[in-house]
Amino acid sequence: MRHVSFSADNEIALLHSGAGFFPALITAIDAARVEIYLETYIFSIDDTGILVRDALQRAAARGVVVCVITDWIGTGRVETRQLKQTLMQAGVHHRSFNPWFRRGIARSHRKLCVVDRQCAFVGGLNINDDMISDDSHRSVLPAPRWDFAVRIVGPLVQDIHREMYAQWMRIGHMKLRARWENFKRARHTLPVPVHGEALAGLVVRDNLRNRRTIQRTYLQALGHARDSAFLANPYFAPGRKMRRALEEAALRGVRVTLLLGVGQFRMQDAVAHSFYPKLLAAGVRIVEYTRTQLHAKVAVVDDHWATVGSSNYDGLSLFVNQEANVVINDRGFSEYLRAEIEIGAAEGRVVHLSDFANVPWYKRLWHGTAFLMYRTVIHIITLGKDA
């Protein structure tokens, strides 16, 4: 496993949901002078997606090199074809990640953007409308989807750019001359303004050199926790190491709060509920977010370590798919994010151990069956390496 490479003197701004993220993203795209790299799991052609698409096309029209990667499953087969045609007609380069599962079952779940190697975005937001459910039902949400991203200015942007450029080259089929032209352009470095003092690093998960990087980053943070740990995630189905780390932190007196999304997938909720009794018995506080769809993948430990990104706490994100998080060691940022998680927790429903004292046998059977089914599938997909 690669060690996380941190850089100092980064300015990092927390962007809350689409209201904070999309205006900042579009402003950066409209200011681009040289190049834009954008990766997303879902790129919907809805009102929000059209705004981002049009901004990318405006950039290409004024001579900016624009490269977009979307996931073939996340965006959809038909939608991918339509998006590709529209973007390429406007001069935007587009590539689809792993169409028809030609490179196995892994998906690219990353949400990244770099503009002119000066400004980067990392987070959990797809390119889709905040008020529409991102599952197959496409139902209207009662409130904007609860999610986060960060805007980064500083030395870390170069690391994110290198990762995105490498991804673009990995999944493409380019002639030698085109590769040489891209290489020459990559050597041209624009001046990077430095503001702020945050120490931060990019953490990615893939199936080559970074198979366990994101999980081990979480395990290390929880293992060193002394006071508090606040974690928010929509899908809770981690391996035993992650669950044990949460339990051990709570048992040694750390205030562990899990803010989890519920209500989107019935089987996912059942799998999560199968873990609740043991976690609650160890002292972990569990809150189910019920106001709207929770999509954030964020955490804060001891008010100085924080992470924002795309990785869920489930087998697909931790052991199969490609993911990207940013880890931030900065007290001011961490305290601010922790306050946002606490606000979310105040809007949720606290789960108590007593809630499971008189659960009917058929519900216990459903929880156990859901876990076994999920565990078997993940075990097969990962060849038994999903600990």
UniProtKB/TrEMBL annotation:
Reactions accelerated catalytically: 2 a 1,2-diacyl-sn-glycero-3-phospho-(1'-sn-glycerol) = a cardiolipin + glycerol
- Organism encoding this protein: Herbaspirillum lusitanum
Name used for this protein in its record: Cardiolipin synthase B
Which SUPFAM superfamilies does the UniProt record give? Phospholipase D/nuclease
Q: How does it sit in the membrane?
A: Peripheral membrane protein
Give the Pfam families listed for this entry: PLDc_2
Q: What class of enzyme is it?
A: transferase
Per UniProt, which keywords does this protein have? Cell membrane, Lipid biosynthesis, Lipid metabolism, Membrane, Phospholipid biosynthesis, Phospholipid metabolism, Transferase
The UniProt family comment states: Belongs to the phospholipase D family. Cardiolipin synthase subfamily. ClsB sub-subfamily.
Active site per database record: H109, K111, D116, H295, K297, D302
Described by its record, this protein's role is as follows:
Catalyzes the phosphatidyl group transfer from one phosphatidylglycerol molecule to another to form cardiolipin (CL) (diphosphatidylglycerol) and glycerol.
